[in-house]
Amino acid sequence: MKELGGENAEIVDDIVYQYEIDAEHQSGVIAGRVDARHPSHDYDTMALDVIESEGLDAPVGSLAFGAVRLALKEADVQGVNAGFEVWQGRKSFLDSTRSNQRSPKLSDAVNAYLLNRQKKRTVDGVREAFRCFEKVVGDLHLHALTAEHFRAFCRAQATLDIGGRSRGSVTRPMSAETIDKKLAFLRGAIKHAIDQGEFIGPNVASGITSKPFVRPSDPLVMPEKRPFTSAEISRILAYPWFTGCESETRRHRPGSYRLGGMWYWGPLVALLTGCRAAEIGGLLLSEVMLDEKYPHLLIRTNEHRTTKGGYSRKVPILDQLLELGFGEFVDHQRRAGAHRLFDDWPLPSNKSGHNDKPISNGPMVRSFNTTLLPAALKGIMTAERRKEVTFHSFRGAFKTLLTKNEYQLSMNYIHEVVGHAKSNLDKRYIGEIDISETYPAVRKCRYEDIAFPPPPPFG
Fold first, then answer.
1. HEC string of the chain?
2. The pTM is what?
3. Residue 366: is its pLDDT beyond 90?
């Protein structure tokens, strides 16, 4: 009746309003029916009435008759349950039945979700996810969205190829991880609308995954990422970038000029601490704790970057890093009045637009991945394949170092130092492992079969 509009809609509104009043005054009756979970209507008679009035082909005993009967029963139970929630004060029946008429569009939910999101990468990701979804499904009201809409979105995304637009980038099918990240952004926007009371209904994006729809990647073209081997690290450290190049800008040609700052120390800190590029680029000098009893880096969210999951950790500084002159470099940076350990590492800017790259993809990291690696590892890396190793592979090499049998480190210590998630059991019974325990266990770990080039002069 409501869908017919006009006077019919007004009649239904009056019925709903009266139902709400009745629910408040007949709470005992409603509670009794809900507790029984078995309404006492004569569904056979009701089904026959519906079949006759609607002219349905559903003789008694047929599957069609059973479907009509089941629909009536489910509708009755839903109505009783709604009345019970009204009686308990958890919901206004009148509001809940009308909520679909005023549910926001998905675009409205996305914009509201982004109001308090400061991280540019997140904002861009959410907006891109919505643009992709709108192309396939459209900008629907939240109450009109169904799980099938999100499956259709996954199907469409899974047909797309990515990559191949820049040097060293390989064309490949869109991965499940990429599509699922977009799903997570959209799911978050809907959840935010529900949490804010803007929409009363289920989050139909929950439980949807792209895995049934994605195309498999060719392992010859898309090999798995892996850590650097010791032989590869030796070839990297023998490159002009570390041993001597022509000039500050001609870093890939042999010469007598020595690169310092992030160019020399950035990769070495990554190799000898296992820290992520963003963690290194945003590291404050005040977070380099050399004068403590247990020298360490304090990795935490600061004004320049966030940490994964918002967690903080203390990373022991290995003896081998100090032997290379890291302490002298830190002292030099402090005397120079630097704020960050690597003040030459550009920060992203959302205002002027002069640098829209995330801090983890600064010029040093990009040059390392696109130019240094193909040259230093020529014969190992090929243009027809995705890179098996990148700057991030220093992190894998460090974790491999910690897992060597001769050090006999427990996995709890390794996860604490590297910043990997502990199991739920470990979180409950172990929690954070203090630096007073991890430093003595980790400090003497070293790359025995790698020759490190001497550091450049300071000043």
1. CHHHCHHHHHHHHHHHHHHHHHHHHCHHHHHHHHHHCCCCCCHHHHHHHHHHHHCCCCCCCCHHHHHHHHHHHHHHHHHHHHHHHHHHCCCCHHHHHHHHHHCCEHHHHHHHHHCCCCCHHHHHHHHHHHHHHHHHCCCCEHHHCCHHHHHHHHHHHHCCEECCCCCCCCCEECCHHHHHHHHHHHHHHHHHHHHCCCCCCCCCCCCCCCCCCCCCCCCCCCCCCCCCCHHHHHHHHCCHHHHCECCCCCCCCECCECCCHHHHHHHHHHHHHCCCHHHHHCCEHHHEECCCCCCEEEECCCCCCCCHHHCCEEEECCHHHHHCCHHHHHHHHHHCCCCECCCCCCCCCCCCCCCCCCHHHCHHHHHHHHHHHHHHCECCECCCCCCCCCCCHHHHHHHHHHCCHHHCCCHHHHHHHHCCCCCHHHHHHCCCCCHHHHHHHHCCCCCCCCCCCCCCCCC
2. 0.64
3. yes
